[in-house]
Design brief:
Blueprint (H helix, E strand, L loop, with lengths): L2 E5 L1 H10 L6 H10 L4 E4 L10 H10 L3 E6 L3 H10 L3 E4 L25 H10 L3 E6 L3 H10 L3 E5 L1 H6 L5 H17 L3 E5 L7 H7 L3 E6 L1 H10 L1 H12 L1
Parallel strand pairs: 1-2, 1-8, 2-3, 3-4, 4-5, 5-6, 6-7, 7-8
Helix pairs in contact: 2-3, 6-8, 10-11
Length: 241
């Protein structure tokens, strides 16, 4: 079964809008785990506008499932990750002020990940942390990711999600399928994330050979406003099957 990692950033966004500690990020994560989630994802940003560095430490101390920390590999971020030592670190090429992740790494010469990323991956792996790079479904870029030594890639699925309810669904999904096959042939584990929801998950799972894990936050937390957090996690697990 494809594993579900719930991104709890939006819980922190709600808390920070009012200040204080309510709702609790740790308590929300525990509800997700008790409902069957296989992991928890957080994406601390430099301005701490949602997840704070303190949250990362608190979650690491409280969780009994895998913690996945996403972020841009700044010195401060890498120090945090190496201190916490989560199961997985997903590196994204986000500039500090971006609203949400909106592109994969460009690993060509002169691209946004061409310099130093291999050393970053080596540092994380030496700390016993599984590594993943946020990637577009581009086989040339995925080959470069494999050469850098990452353990996994996370396919950026916004294009798929936008095309899913349209006649372009199959056409847009095909590059993702090819990318998944290619990644598997090059020894990479395959994760996926961005704009995934309970409706578009089953088709994605059926068309991404070797898919190991999805990371879902915004849609799942939005659904939970209507259905409750535990029932929503259960519904997503059904969609993954």
């Amino acid at each position: 079964m494809v594993r579900l990692s719930v991104n709890v950033n939006k819980i922190a966004t709600l808390r920070n809008a009012r200040g204080g500690t309510n709702p609790s990020v740790v308590d929300a994560a525990r509800v997700c785990v008790d409902a069957g989630a296989h992991g928890i994802t957080v994406h601390p940003r430099p301005d701490e506008r949602h997840i704070r560095y303190r949250d990362v430490h608190d979650l690491a101390a409280a969780l009994t499932v895998e913690l996945n920390i996403e972020g841009y590999p700044s010195p401060e971020f890498l120090d945090l990750v190496c201190d916490v030592r989560p199961a997985q670190c997903t590196l994204v090429p986000d500039p500090p002020d971006v609203l949400t992740s909106n592109a994969g790494w460009d690993l060509r010469d002169g691209g946004n990940g061409a310099t130093g990323l291999g050393d970053v991956l080596a540092r994380l792996k030496s700390a016993g942390i599984r590594t993943s790079l946020f990637m577009d479904p581009d086989t040339d870029q995925i080959a470069r990711a494999a050469a850098l030594g990452t353990d996994r890639i996370e396919l950026y699925t916004m294009d798929y999600a936008e095309a899913f309810p349209t006649e372009a669904r199959d056409q847009v999904t095909e590059p993702y399928r090819r990318a998944a096959v290619f990644a598997g042939e090059h020894g990479l584990g395959i994760n996926a994330g961005h704009d995934l929801d309970v409706h578009n998950l089953p088709y994605l799972v059926a068309n991404l050979p070797g898919l190991l894990e999805v990371s879902i936050g915004h849609a799942l937390i939005a659904d939970a406003l209507y259905q409750g957090l535990a029932p929503t996690v259960a519904a997503y697990l059904v969609a993954l099957r």
